Backbone:
């Protein structure tokens, strides 16, 4: 009667060790450093930020105009420039980069 008890206890210890083994290893240190971006990725990131700023400014201008904090004349004077900035950023983001146009030319 004690042999099955000992074997069951040993089996339980082995199972617990197998389950706990991944948690007992020292984790590899994580780096907070970001991967360095190449020129095209950096340009796309800058254009995306420019687009986001222009669209946020348009949204805020619309809200201020609807709330009556900005008059019609001031709204008309400001909205055109903001729309042009947003459109320019969107067009620049849609332009193919040198690397992607070369890849498309090879595949096509």
Residues:
């Amino acid at each position: 009667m004690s042999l099955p008890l000992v074997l069951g206890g040993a089996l339980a210890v082995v199972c617990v060790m197998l389950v706990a083994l991944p948690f007992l290893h020292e984790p590899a240190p994580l780096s907070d450093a970001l991967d360095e971006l190449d020129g095209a990725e950096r340009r796309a990131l800058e254009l995306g930020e420019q687009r986001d700023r222009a669209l946020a400014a348009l949204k805020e201008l619309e809200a201020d105009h609807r709330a009556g904090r900005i008059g019609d004349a001031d709204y008309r004077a400001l909205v055109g420039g903001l729309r042009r900035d947003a459109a320019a950023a969107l067009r620049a983001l849609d332009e193919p980069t040198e690397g992607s146009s070369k890849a498309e030319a090879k595949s096509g």
Q: What stands out?
A: Residues 58 and 82 are 6 Å apart (CA to CA). Helices lie at 2-24, 39-67, 72-94, 98-107. The chain is about 80% helix and 0% strand. The chain has a mean pLDDT of 83.
